[in-house]
Specification:
Jelly Rolls, nine-stranded antiparallel beta sheet, mainly beta, eight-stranded antiparallel beta sheet
């Protein structure tokens, strides 16, 4: 079901990850990424705007405002091969190989996600393909998205964010910390252009269960709105 995060602080402390951009430029960044930076820049909540170019930045579990949409797959649903599945406004489709072309969200996977403080635990979305590639189409274009993913071995995963006309906006890779322990994948952009994401199992492919939980996504303030907020704050302070 949808729920609202109780984390009211946007304090993203992003670890070193590998990020790819639609401009085909690759960079290893610590906290901020743009298509032409030589040194890592401090991450800001406002993102980066370079002459109207859409940029992507990796975020961690705490990189949301606290008002995001949050799908924890409760109460869930039984196994179905009638794909794509529409659940809580998000369309889930599987493009993997091997196993069954089906989803289920009626089992609890607490031990896979209890390594992440704040995770909802309980039920998760289980992809029954042996090699996982899952597409998640969001109800509206957003500027920030992320989720937890886990399987039965230590595996690397990628989250790819796509915009209009299937344009790849950016991607982030991460590796599970241990066997049956989840990893968080998240991205934000400087404008609300993310229409869907694709989660890929990279290596090694373990031919085991794959579970997703705590899908979170939100619309970010547009630059014009931020300018108006800043202007209003200055006027208020001046009057005081």
């Amino acid at each position: 079901m949808f729920r609202t995060s109780t984390n009211w602080f946007h304090l993203a402390a992003v670890a070193m990850v590998s990020v790819s951009f639609s401009s085909s430029v690759w960079a290893n960044v610590s906290l901020e990424a743009a298509s032409t930076i030589a040194e890592p820049l401090p991450k800001t909540n406002l993102g980066v705007v370079l002459d109207g170019i859409t940029t992507t930045t990796p975020i961690d579990w705490n990189g949301f405002s606290g008002s995001e949409n949050w799908i924890d797959f409760e109460p869930g649903f039984g196994m179905t091969s009638d794909l794509p599945v529409l659940y809580d406004g998000v369309e889930f489709d599987s493009m993997g190989t091997g196993g069954l072309n089906a989803f289920r969200a009626d089992l609890s996977w607490d031990t896979y996600f209890d390594n992440q403080p704040g995770a909802s635990l309980g039920k998760g979305l289980n992809d029954l393909h042996l090699s996982t590639v899952v597409k998640m189409v969001l109800p509206d274009a957003v500027g920030r998205v992320g989720l937890l993913v886990a399987t039965s071995d230590v595996v690397s995963w990628s989250l790819e964010a796509y915009g209009t006309n299937d344009i790849l906006l950016g991607s982030v890779d991460a590796t599970m910390p241990a066997w049956q322990e989840s990893v968080f994948l998240g991205l934000e952009t400087n404008e609300n252009v993310i229409e869907y994401i694709v989660i890929r199992e990279l290596e090694p492919t373990v031919n085991g269960v794959t579970i997703f939980d705590d899908l979170r996504f939100e619309v970010i303030p547009e630059p014009t709105s931020l300018l108006l907020i800043g202007t209003g704050t200055l006027l208020f302070l001046r009057r005081r």
